[in-house]
């Protein structure tokens, strides 16, 4: 059999090593049915019975094959082993068997010696097994494949590194001779796995699975390797395949349960599957105490103390104890799990039973000590821990013992540093024990997330209770918590308590977004997680979003009414009320908190708990201090002092005593007694907890109350002297920066950096400090020197930013390209850094006007960020929000660039992609809506704005755009409603007012603008001096035909950073065309002016052109926009010189040819230049091209001017119908367009329809604010022709009142109209 059926022997060996004893018997029995009573099979059957403690049955089986030559040695050894396992050992029989074994050994064959080696290996006697197998190989002539395979396995499992290296050679030797040798394939795979080459190991196992399709051990190994590679999906797939192949596969079901517990956190389903597993073991391994306990241990450690799971796992442990009641390990496990269930008394009984069975059991002793500590029996616990400390040298350091010592230290109120150091040591020892262990069942058992969660909770007792400010060095306790929680959250994402604690730690570290991401993970998996809702409320409170804070509190309460019994609920509620100014309600809330059991006075016993769980001393102190502060703020000073005194009495000689002292100092400070506050804080010595916080508070008092910068810095100097570390050095350096002494700050930072050259935070701070002090050259030199010594990539990023700020674009580009030139790496941190560098590189290109290069860098960044986002959710879940924000920023920048180049469709695509990453980013939503508006996709624009206003109903920009949209849809009342709504709330919202002026012009209601300008003036007495107000006033004057007044107001806004550029642009427009004529138009060219008037007009045009030339120098070009260039070319044309016009024409032509899309302003410029050069047909072709385009609000002015110019051309050609159509198009988009009405009047006049002409001129006169005498003349003339003589006389008087010498007004119209009336 052994020679012909290699898989059977391989399976028997595998199951023996896995301690699946009934599986060994089942495989042997199946093979016996197939091959008959083979002695080797009979041996394994008997050995399997012995391992199940069915000694008499096993010995009978072995006795029957005792004389078979090939198994005689191993059978004799197995019989001796069975006798020694008996309760009453038959010494005589053992001696006889020993004598027989020695006799048989002399004449044994190589096969007999091989099977003896096999038996010795399975019983854990590796050295003896190695001796036997070497002898077997020697007897076989120095070459035996099965002997070499066994030797490889013996070395592999011996636990000794020097033999481990040899194991690989033995397996390699066998596989080179027989590539499909199953035992060698599994052995080589296991060897590679132990060398952490899981991919190579999986390749070998895949060969085994393919070569032996029905071989279950190979599939089991494959599952484990897939898990070691952290590929849960493939692991589960293989497990399901295994269960299809063999429904009683315990390992497959175990891994599926682990996946449900660790990845999904679905405890209900896991409990059901564990029930199935228990039934499976009851049927297929009923006598296997080891398997019951082993599986139970893993599940209990990752179940977050879920009572349903713990009931199931404890059942398994009880099964193990039922099978082997003398095993102390099983009783220890029972004790541990009962303690997890909160049954401390039962747990102690189990531990005492374990101690009875094994007096040296350290596990049992640590369990008893844990109970003593929790029960307040500190003296007994200390005595036991001292004993364990003495024997620790022999047993090695234990994370459990160190943790218990930390607990004792805290309960004895020892200095915080001492306790935290013990916790640090415990966590270090714990994680060292996991080193090199692949992800799998053993890893989860040893990792023991439950223990680590307890450790984090212990750390948090010594962490700050309020979030750290931006730029502050991380608190060491919080940093350690982060280091402990990170592997838990990666390995066991289903453990929501881990994510909740991580969120709490991130929040206290000031990393609010990351905290929210972790909390969202909790709430996505379990919306009823009340603690997560409470922490979310705390975060919103910290962010100042009191409404959402209250909502989160109510959500937590709705899911769990017991939340009301938790002090934290009342604390958050009270703080929210305090922030909202509801002080009476705040006092009532805190009084309710004070009335909770265990708040005013500590519970007598630790076992006595309130419904919400045990109350921490931190929460108790917080209630006292918040109530005292609330009383103080409501003026109840006596009550505040009384509560504070109660706090002093209650927490005297506890770890929280100093916190009360600091709060008391705050109370004194509020009363104005600065000296008493300082006196209290000075009494806090360096040995006491909160010393750092006390010195920080003192420093704050010196700076803000005493205004003494020296004493402020001295507090931090004292900290740095008493606690010399990079953290205190950072605090001292930051303090010097705060009091504007950067040189000293840099000196401190540099000293700290010398001690810790790899401290990235310090290196960055030095560079930033130099930049803040404008020592740019020194900062550049520092960064370059730091990079030469192997600085991190983020320093290159900082240097790149600095060079960009200094406009050294080439140097910045070079620096960033060097940072990006490295070997391709798939490390997540490298990809994240590269994405940031590419974004900065794109910015450098954009500033350097290399738009194509900028777009290319952004495209690369976008692709890289997509890769990052695929992996970050698994590898760094707390960084998801930040990475999504970066992805949003990249897409937004791409969209912005496309938008400036008028590639609106591409821009929309990128903005939509940005919203995939940040669905509630109001800035992106607004820009997307703006693009839809530009493309006249009004419904899409409205949909986007409605969504935005649902998220932020006070978004002013969205309201402005909604009003704009309503106007575009012709819903003027709705547009007005939105503006009134906004301007009633903020009359001085000048951005909205400017848009309103433009919309009123387009709606033909310019006369209503004055009301809103008056409203703004009433709201702020300084409005007439405000650049925004002057800009809006300038627009109004310009639109109603008062260019000089408009220039005056724009000039007052000209120097402003927000309004200046727009104002200058408008001033240039007015200088180029003060009378709002159609530049290049021929219809209204003045042929009847005298030479003096013509010369005067030419001179004023030249002066205006020179003014425009000066102004254009003040106009700054904007990225990706050609507006500045177009205005520059128009200024050139304004000189009316033929040479300049030709220059302008070629510049406009170049712009048109370089634009990716139709450039309306440039095309209009080409047409205007042609008209000025009297090349009308060419101009007409360009204008027709514009007329065919779809109108958009971005180019609205240019569209209007082009339609007017083309209308002018058609009028001169006598094509009045075509001109009429264009002019109506103008009026559709601008109902105040004077020129369009003037042209329409001209057409009607030519057609001798004087009444219609008069109506059009009347509107032109009205919308020109009755300022233009030419239009007044035409209107009076057409009134006269239409026989409206009185109206004609009225208009004549109005024109002559302002322009008394206006030519021919009296002679042609006034006198004739009077004569006609008399007649």
UniProtKB/TrEMBL annotation:
<dbReference type="GO" id="GO:0061512">
    <property type="term" value="P:protein localization to cilium"/>
</dbReference>
<dbReference type="InterPro" id="IPR056835">
    <property type="entry name" value="ARM_TT21_5th"/>
</dbReference>
<dbReference type="Pfam" id="PF25058">
    <property type="entry name" value="ARM_TT21"/>
</dbReference>
<dbReference type="GO" id="GO:0035721">
    <property type="term" value="P:intraciliary retrograde transport"/>
</dbReference>
<feature type="repeat" description="TPR">
    <location>
        <begin position="726"/>
        <end position="759"/>
    </location>
</feature>
<feature type="domain" description="Tetratricopeptide repeat protein 21A/21B C-terminal ARM">
    <location>
        <begin position="1107"/>
        <end position="1314"/>
    </location>
</feature>
<dbReference type="Pfam" id="PF13176">
    <property type="entry name" value="TPR_7"/>
</dbReference>
<dbReference type="InterPro" id="IPR056832">
    <property type="entry name" value="ARM_TT21_2nd"/>
</dbReference>
<dbReference type="InterPro" id="IPR056836">
    <property type="entry name" value="ARM_TT21_4th"/>
</dbReference>
<feature type="domain" description="Tetratricopeptide repeat protein 21A/21B fourth ARM">
    <location>
        <begin position="762"/>
        <end position="915"/>
    </location>
</feature>
<feature type="domain" description="Tetratricopeptide repeat protein 21A/21B second ARM">
    <location>
        <begin position="274"/>
        <end position="542"/>
    </location>
</feature>
<keyword id="KW-0802">TPR repeat</keyword>
<feature type="domain" description="Tetratricopeptide repeat protein 21A/21B fifth ARM repeats">
    <location>
        <begin position="957"/>
        <end position="1072"/>
    </location>
</feature>
<dbReference type="Pfam" id="PF25063">
    <property type="entry name" value="ARM_TT21_C"/>
</dbReference>
<dbReference type="InterPro" id="IPR040364">
    <property type="entry name" value="TTC21A/TTC21B"/>
</dbReference>
<comment type="similarity">
    <text>Belongs to the TTC21 family.</text>
</comment>
<dbReference type="Pfam" id="PF25060">
    <property type="entry name" value="ARM_TT21_2nd"/>
</dbReference>
<dbReference type="Pfam" id="PF25068">
    <property type="entry name" value="ARM_TT21_4th"/>
</dbReference>
<dbReference type="Pfam" id="PF25064">
    <property type="entry name" value="ARM_TT21_5th"/>
</dbReference>
<dbReference type="InterPro" id="IPR056834">
    <property type="entry name" value="ARM_TT21_C"/>
</dbReference>
<feature type="repeat" description="TPR">
    <location>
        <begin position="956"/>
        <end position="989"/>
    </location>
</feature>
<dbReference type="InterPro" id="IPR011990">
    <property type="entry name" value="TPR-like_helical_dom_sf"/>
</dbReference>
<dbReference type="InterPro" id="IPR056833">
    <property type="entry name" value="ARM_TT21_N"/>
</dbReference>
<feature type="repeat" description="TPR">
    <location>
        <begin position="1200"/>
        <end position="1233"/>
    </location>
</feature>
<dbReference type="GO" id="GO:0030991">
    <property type="term" value="C:intraciliary transport particle A"/>
</dbReference>
<dbReference type="GO" id="GO:0005929">
    <property type="term" value="C:cilium"/>
</dbReference>
<dbReference type="Pfam" id="PF25062">
    <property type="entry name" value="ARM_TT21_N"/>
</dbReference>
<feature type="domain" description="Tetratricopeptide repeat protein 21A/21B N-terminal ARM repeat">
    <location>
        <begin position="13"/>
        <end position="236"/>
    </location>
</feature>
<protein>
    <recommendedName>
        <fullName>Tetratricopeptide repeat protein 21B</fullName>
    </recommendedName>
</protein>
<keyword id="KW-0677">Repeat</keyword>
<dbReference type="InterPro" id="IPR019734">
    <property type="entry name" value="TPR_rpt"/>
</dbReference>
């Amino acid at each position: 059999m052994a020679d012909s059926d290699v898989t059977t022997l391989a399976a028997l060996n595998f199951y023996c090593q896995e301690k699946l004893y009934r599986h060994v018997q089942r495989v042997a029995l199946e093979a016996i049915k197939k091959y008959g009573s083979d002695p080797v099979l009979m041996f394994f059957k008997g050995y399997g019975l012995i391992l199940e403690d069915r000694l008499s049955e096993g010995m009978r089986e072995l006795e029957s094959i005792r004389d078979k030559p090939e198994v005689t040695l191993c059978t004799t050894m197995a019989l001796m082993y069975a006798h020694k396992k008996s309760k009453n050992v038959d010494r005589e029989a053992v001696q006889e068997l020993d004598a027989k074994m020695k006799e048989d050994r002399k004449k044994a064959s190589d096969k007999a010696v091989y099977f003896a080696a096999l038996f010795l290996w399975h019983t854990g006697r590796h050295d003896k097994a190695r001796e036997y197998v070497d002898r077997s190989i020697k007897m076989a002539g120095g070459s035996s494949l099965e002997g070499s395979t066994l030797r490889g396995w013996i070395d592999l499992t011996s636990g000794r590194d020097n033999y481990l290296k040899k194991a690989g050679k033995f397996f390699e030797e066998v596989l080179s001779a027989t590539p499909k040798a199953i035992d060698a394939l599994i052995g080589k795979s296991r060897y590679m796995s132990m060398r952490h080459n899981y991919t190579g190991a999986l390749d070998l196992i895949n060969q085994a699975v393919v070569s032996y399709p029905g071989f279950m051990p190979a599939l089991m190994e494959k599952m484990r390797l897939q898990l070691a590679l952290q590929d849960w999906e493939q692991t589960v797939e293989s497990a399901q395949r295994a269960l299809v192949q063999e429904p009683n596969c315990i390992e497959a079901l175990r891994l599926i349960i682990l996946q449900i517990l660790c990845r999904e956190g679905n405890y209900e389903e896991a409990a059901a599957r564990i029930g199935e597993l228990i039934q499976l073991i009851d049927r297929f391994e009923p006598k296997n105490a080891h398997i019951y306990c082993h599986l139970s241990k893993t599940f209990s450690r990752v179940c977050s103390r879920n009572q349903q799971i713990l009931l199931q796992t404890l059942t398994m442990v009880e099964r193990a104890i039922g099978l082997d009641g003398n095993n102390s390990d099983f009783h220890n496990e029972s004790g541990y799990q009962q303690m997890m269930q909160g049954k401390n008394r039962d747990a102690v009984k189990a531990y005492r039973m374990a101690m009875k069975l094994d007096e040296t059991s350290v596990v049992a002793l640590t369990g008893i000590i844990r109970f003593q500590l929790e029960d307040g029996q500190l003296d007994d616990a200390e005595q036991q821990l001292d004993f364990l400390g003495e024997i620790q040298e022999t047993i090695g350091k234990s994370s459990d013992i160190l943790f218990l010592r930390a607990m004792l230290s805290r309960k004895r109120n020892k200095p915080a540093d001492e306790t935290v150091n013990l916790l640090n040591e415990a966590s270090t020892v714990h994680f060292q024990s996991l080193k090199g262990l692949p992800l799998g069942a053993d890893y989860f058992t040893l990792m023991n997330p439950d223990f680590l969660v307890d450790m984090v909770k212990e750390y948090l007792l010594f962490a700050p209770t309020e979030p750290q400010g931006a730029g502050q060095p991380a608190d060491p306790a919080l940093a350690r918590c982060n280091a402990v929680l990170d592997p838990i959250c990666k390995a066991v994402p289903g453990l929501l308590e881990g994510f909740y604690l991580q969120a709490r730690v991130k929040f206290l570290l000031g990393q609010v977004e990351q905290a929210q991401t972790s909390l969202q993970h909790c709430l996505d998996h379990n919306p009823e997680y009340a603690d997560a809702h409470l922490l979310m409320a705390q975060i919103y409170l910290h962010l100042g979003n009191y409404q959402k804070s209250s909502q989160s509190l109510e959500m937590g309460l709705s899911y769990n009414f017991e939340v009301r019994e938790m002090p934290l609920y009342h604390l958050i509620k009270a703080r929210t009320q305090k922030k909202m100014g509801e002080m009476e309600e705040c006092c009532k809330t805190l009084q309710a908190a004070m009335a909770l059991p265990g708040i005013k006075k500590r519970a007598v016993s630790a076992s006595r708990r309130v419904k919400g769980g045990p109350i921490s001393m931190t929460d108790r102190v917080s209630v006292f201090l918040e109530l005292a502060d609330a009383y103080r703020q409501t003026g109840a000073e006596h009550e505040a002092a009384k509560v504070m005194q109660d706090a002093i009495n209650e927490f005297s000689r506890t770890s929280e005593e100093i916190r009360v002292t600091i709060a008391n100092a705050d109370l004194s400070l509020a009363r104005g007694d600065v000296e008493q506050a300082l006196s209290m804080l000075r009494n806090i010595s360096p040995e006491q907890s909160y010393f750092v916080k006390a010195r920080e508070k003192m420093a704050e008092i010196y700076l803000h109350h005493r205004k003494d910068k020296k004493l402020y810095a001295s507090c931090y100097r004292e900290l740095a002297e008493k606690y010399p570390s990079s953290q205190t050095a950072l605090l001292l350096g930051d303090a010097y920066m705060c009091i504007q002494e950067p040189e000293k700050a840099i000196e401190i930072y540099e000293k700290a950096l010398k001690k810790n050259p790899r401290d990235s935070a310090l290196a960055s701070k030095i560079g930033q400090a130099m930049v803040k002090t404008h020592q740019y050259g020194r900062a550049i030199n520092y960064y370059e020197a730091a990079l030469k010594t192997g600085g991190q990539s983020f320093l290159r990023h900082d240097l790149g930013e600095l060079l960009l700020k200094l406009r050294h674009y080439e140097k910045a580009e070079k620096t960033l390209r060097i940072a990006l030139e490295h070997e391709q790496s798939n490390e997540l941190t490298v990809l994240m850094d590269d994405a940031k560098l590419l974004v900065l590189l794109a910015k450098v290109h954009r500033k350097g006007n290399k738009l194509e290069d900028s777009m290319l860098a952004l495209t690369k960044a976008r692709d890289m960020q997509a890769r990052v986002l695929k992996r970050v959710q698994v590898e760094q879940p707390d960084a998801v929000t930040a990475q999504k924000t970066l992805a949003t920023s990249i897409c937004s920048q791409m969209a912005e660039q496309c938008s400036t180049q008028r590639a609106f469709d591409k821009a929309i695509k990128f903005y939509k992609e940005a919203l995939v990453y940040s669905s509630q980013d109001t800035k992106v939503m607004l820009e997307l809506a703006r693009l839809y508006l530009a493309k006249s996709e009004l419904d899409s624009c409205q949909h986007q704005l409605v969504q935005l206003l649902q998220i932020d109903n006070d978004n002013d920009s969205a309201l402005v755009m909604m009003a704009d949209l309503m106007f575009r849809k012709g819903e003027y009342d709705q547009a007005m409603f939105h503006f009134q709504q906004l301007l009633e709330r903020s009359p001085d919202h000048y951005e909205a007012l400017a848009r309103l002026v433009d919309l009123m012009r387009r709606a033909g209601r310019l006369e209503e603008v004055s009301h809103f300008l008056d409203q703004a003036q009433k709201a702020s007495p300084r409005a007439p001096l405000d650049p925004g107000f002057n800009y809006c006033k300038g627009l109004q004057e310009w639109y109603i035909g008062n260019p000089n007044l408009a220039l005056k107001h724009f000039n007052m806004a000209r120097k402003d950073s927000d309004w200046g550029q727009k104002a200058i642009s408008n001033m240039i427009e007015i200088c180029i065309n003060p009378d709002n004529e159609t530049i290049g138009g021929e219809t209204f060219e003045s042929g009847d002016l005298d030479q003096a008037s013509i010369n005067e007009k030419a001179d004023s045009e030249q002066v205006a052109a020179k003014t425009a030339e000066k102004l254009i120098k003040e106009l700054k070009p904007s990225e990706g926009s050609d507006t500045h260039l177009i205005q520059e070319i128009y200024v050139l044309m304004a000189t009316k010189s033929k040479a300049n016009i030709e220059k302008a024409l070629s510049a406009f032509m170049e712009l048109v040819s370089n634009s990716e899309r139709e450039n309306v302003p440039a095309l209009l410029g080409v047409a205007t230049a042609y008209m000025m050069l009297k090349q009308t047909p060419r101009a007409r072709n360009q204008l027709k091209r514009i007329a065919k385009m779809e109108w958009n609000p971005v180019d609205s002015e240019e569209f209007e001017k082009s339609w007017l110019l083309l209308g002018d051309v058609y009028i001169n050609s006598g094509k009045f119908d075509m001109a009429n159509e264009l002019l109506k198009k103008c009026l559709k988009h601008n109902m105040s367009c004077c020129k369009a009405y003037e042209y329409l009047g001209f057409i009607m006049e030519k057609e001798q329809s004087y009444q219609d002409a008069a109506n059009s001129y009347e509107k032109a006169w009205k919308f020109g604010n009755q300022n233009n005498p030419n239009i007044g003349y035409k209107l009076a003339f057409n009134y006269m022709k239409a026989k409206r003589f009185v109206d004609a006389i009225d208009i004549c008087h109005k024109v002559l009142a302002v322009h008394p010498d206006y030519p021919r007004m009296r002679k042609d119209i006034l006198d004739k109209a009077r004569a006609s009336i008399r007649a």
